[in-house]
Amino acid sequence: MRVEQADVCVVGGGPGGLMAGLLLARQGVRVTVLEKHPDFLRDFRGDTVHPSTLRVMDELGLVDDFLRLPHAKAPAMTMDTAAGPCVFADFSRLPGRFRFMAFMPQWDVLDFLAGAGRTRPGFRLERQAEVTGLVKEGGRVSGVVAKTPNGPLEVRARLVVGADGRRSVVREAAALPLAGDAAPMDALWFRLSRHEGEVVPTIKARAGYLVVAINRQTYWQAVQMIPKGGYDAVRGAGIERFRADVRRAHPGFAARLDEEIRDWDDVKLLDVRIDRLRRWYAPGVLCIGDAAHAMSPAGGVGINLAVQDAVAAARILGPVLRAGLTPGREHLRAVQRRRQLPMRVVQLAQLHLLGDLYPSAHRKSTDRPLVVRLNRLLPFFPHLMARLIAIGVRPETVGVAPDVRG
Ligand SMILES: Cc1cc2nc3c(=O)[nH]c(=O)nc-3n(C[C@H](O)[C@H](O)[C@H](O)COP(=O)(O)OP(=O)(O)OC[C@H]3O[C@@H](n4cnc5c(N)ncnc54)[C@H](O)[C@@H]3O)c2cc1C
User: Fold this and answer.
1) 301 lines ligand 1 (CB under 6 A)
2) Which of 19, 194, 212, 254 is least enclosed by beta carbons within 10 angstroms?
3) 16 C-alpha to center of ligand 1: Å?
4) Which atom of ligand 1 lies closest to the CA of 16?
5) Is residue 131 a contact partner of residue 34, using CB atoms and an 8 Å limit?
6) Where are the domains of the chain?
């Protein structure tokens, strides 16, 4: 068994884990990030980088390089229902420099964060290291054990950060209590080519079918929402029927659907979950991002909330770690207290404000969802939605954390 020592071991090289690793290493903390995959090339993940994340990148002096990576800018999220088209979130009046949402493949975001981390001496990312359990001593977590191609690895650390996503091994091994809401829908992802300059509404709903389309320059990453647990029934009805359902919401995609969605290999299921840990921490361990709270894909908030958690965790815990101390219960609880409200506000909005957008087992999606009615009633509604989605409640700043380079 290879045994290594770090101040912090971050489990999971997703947006939350890499940002936490980068920010802690920037403060002079020695961080090892363990990621089970050999690369970041995973498709059908959250791709939406919101102004809250761009602001953090800006504070770190990274935003100009970041925005040089290929991305599409969305100044608004638009919706087209039977009640007519509307702007559902208008980013044009957001405070600050970033008045758009950037659509960027998640692997580019992760490569960028890993690259920024590597410029810090305290940052180490080990890929193909799958954490299988926690090391516990005297009632507290003191490290992790992982499988690697070179044999087992143990990383000992004063703090383990579980940033290992919706099926977190860390939260399970730490026996952290989980609460969940019944997610109304599941999502079927697929990809269609995009014609040069083609613009379509972000959300298109017709006759009980709802399709979200994300512009990835040369193609649309699209998702058809289906009732929760409805995948077997949809699959059983056949690929022809699936294409017909998408066509009902999006007639403009008709020809491409027939040519490009040939069988179920071209369609991926996202089992939507909305859950949250009641307690995000135990002695020696803290969960952030999806590991602490899986979000619905509505509004594309997942990456951004994970990043915000990482920023808060690094700001609160960095000085303690840098002083050579071990974060105690009060420090870990401070992270949860700081991040719990923003996360819960978004989950409640996803469930109640956007809930009737999606087809459920009991009804098809409505032709006049609540957000469309509010949009008609309240002229400021698209700006309010933009603020909630793009910046959220209680936005985080890196703050005065020292930037230790040597
Ligand atoms: C299929 C899919 C589609 C999605 N679509 C959307 C969307 O459209 N919009 C949206 O906002 N969000 C979406 N999400 C969610 C979004 O991707 C996440 O909210 C966001 O990435 C959360 O970041 P995170 O760092 O907390 O966790 P993750 O991004 O899940 O990262 C966790 C990392 O931990 C690694 N890991 C897991 N277990 C271990 C282990 N035992 N040892 C070591 N490493 C481990 C994983 O490989 C992964 O790299 C989607 C998620 C999935 C799975």
Assistant:
1) yes
2) 254
3) 9
4) 25
5) yes
6) 2-71+102-181+273-355, 185-227+229-270
What pLDDT is stored for residue 102 in this prediction? 95
User: Do 359 and 67 touch, CB atoms closer than 8 A?
Assistant: no
Q: Tell whether ligand 1 has an atom less than 6 A from the beta carbon of residue 392.
A: no
Do residues 198 and 243 touch, judged by C-beta distance below 8 A?
no
No. of H helices and E strands in the chain? 12, 22
Task: For ligand 1, say whether the CB of 21 is within 6 Å of any of its atoms.
Answer: no
Structure tokens at 366: 């409505």
Specify the residue with its C-alpha closest to ligand 1, atom 41: 131
Residue 240 C-alpha from the chain's centroid:
31
Query: What pLDDT was estimated at residue 406?
Result: 46
Rounded to an integer, what distance in angstroms lies between the CA atom of residue 103 and that of residue 220?
11
pTM given for the model: 0.93
When computed from its CA atoms, the radius of gyration of the chain, rounded to whole angstroms, is 21
User: Hey, whose CA ends up nearest to atom 7 of ligand 1?
Assistant: 46
Tell me the two tokens of residue 101.
Answer: 């949402």
CA distance 290 to 295: 7
Distance in angstroms (rounded) separating the CA atoms of residues 204 and 79: 6
Q: Is 363 exposed, middle or buried (0-12, 13-18, 19+ CB in 10 A)?
A: exposed
Exposure string (b/e) for 193-208, b if CB count within 10 Å is 16 or more?
ebeeeeebbbbbbbee
Closest CA to 341 of 386, 309, 301, 296: 309
Q: Whole-angstrom Cα distance, residue 269 to residue 361?
A: 17
Q: Write the class of the CATH domain 2-71+102-181+273-355.
A: alpha beta
The tokens describing 358, both together, are 């999606």
Is 184 a pocket residue for ligand 1 (Cβ < 6 Å)? no
33 lines ligand 1 (CB under 6 A): no
Phi, psi (deg, nearest 5) at residue 185? -145, 165
Whether ligand 1 lies within 6 angstroms of the CB of 303 is answered as: yes
Q: Which residues of the chain have pLDDT under 70?
A: 43-44, 359-367, 400-406
Residues 6+ apart with CB under 8 A from 156: 3, 4, 5, 6, 9, 135, 142, 143
Write down the pLDDT at residue 362. Answer: 59
Report the SS3 class of residue 319: helix
